[in-house]
């Protein structure tokens, strides 16, 4: 099984078969428009502009499961991303990434690469750790997605290579993408 076996809905409700991305390196993210990590859109767009001609694509899935930080409609989210950050990569329909209603693609991604911890150097890591530990003292052993802007790197064959928590710097992500290109 690979990500090419999945179908997802775009922001307009159309079914998209992910096999259309065969041969490309992908960065699949769950995002939110009102998150402390929303400013990552700027770095992601710059990365996209730099690498999009190199058989690279970013696929963005808004998610409202973490603090209701993606409250808008698909159209409102796309408009925000375009006007505020000039986003040119595809923004798909809003989804759940955890729980009974999780998008099957994300259940697969989490099954391939679980949670390995936040980057201790990032200023928001301590707060995330404390907040998550209050809800579930054993959260570090659960592979689920912990917050918005979690990213999965997929190679040209559709294999999940690595998972980046929202606390990982874009430069680290870019290095690993370049290694796959």
Automatic annotation (TrEMBL):
Active site (record annotation): 35
Family designation: Belongs to the glutathione peroxidase family.
Residues in Thioredoxin domain copies: 1-181
GO molecular function, one term: peroxidase activity
Family matches, as SUPFAM superfamilies: Thioredoxin-like
GO biological process, one term: cellular response to oxidative stress
Keywords: Oxidoreductase, Peroxidase
Stored PANTHER family: GLUTATHIONE PEROXIDASE
Annotated protein name in UniProt: Glutathione peroxidase
Family matches, as InterPro entries: Glutathione_peroxidase, GPX_CS, Thioredoxin-like_sf, Thioredoxin_domain
Keyword Transferase found: no
Keyword Nucleotide-binding attached: no
One Pfam family cited in the UniProt record for this chain: GSHPx
Recorded superkingdom: Bacteria
